[in-house]
Design goal:
Largest sheet: 3 strands, antiparallel
Shape: elongated
Mean pLDDT: 92
Length: 170
């Protein structure tokens, strides 16, 4: 079975026989898989009247546990966007009544972002469908292959410098 990357590799082998294009195959397939996965995930978000960034913020709050509340700076860290961007995004989520924002009573310089009941219901429905979409997307791999891929991708990410949050603080 051939994929779209195979033809590119053949072309490079012909045009530049002095290089080994195998790394291009790995990276190209990761990028292509990411694009195809993002497309199907966007369809799920749209079905819940959400954009991917909205789902990311709501899911971050939901998985943080009760009371489903984080500081704006914690959301910046979790989402890897600028504080200016997170402010705009929180404003937009608040306008949709998915989150509230309030000054942290324990630290007046900090803002707390809290998932509303409506936001909770929206993200819970979306995350259920999200997992179903991901399950279907991975159906071409059996459970063992999915486990192997998970380990290989974890190894790749950590070799590229990706670490769990706060892991570098210890």
């Amino acid at each position: 079975m051939r994929d779209s990357v195979d033809r590119l590799l053949e072309q490079w082998s012909t045009e530049r026989p002095d290089i080994d294009p195998a790394p291009m195959g790995v990276v190209g397939r990761i990028k292509r898989a990411s694009q195809l996965l993002e497309r199907t995930l966007r369809e799920n978000y749209a079905a819940h009247d959400l954009q991917s960034w909205e789902f990311d913020i709501l899911a971050t709050l939901r998985r943080s546990g009760y009371p489903y509340q984080l500081t704006a700076s914690a959301l910046v860290e979790a989402s890897m966007v600028t504080s200016g961007a997170i402010t705009n995004r929180i404003d937009r989520l608040a306008a949709k009544e998915l989150v509230t924002r309030e000054t942290d009573p324990g630290n007046r310089r900090s803002v707390l972002i809290t998932l509303t009941e409506h936001g909770y219901r929206v993200v819970d429905a979306a995350v259920g469908d999200h997992v179903e979409h991901e399950t279907r997307a991975l159906a071409g791999l059996d459970p063992r292959e999915q486990g192997d891929l998970t380990e290989l991708l974890r190894k790749l990410l950590t070799s590229l410098g990706d670490t769990a949050p706060n892991e570098t603080d210890h």
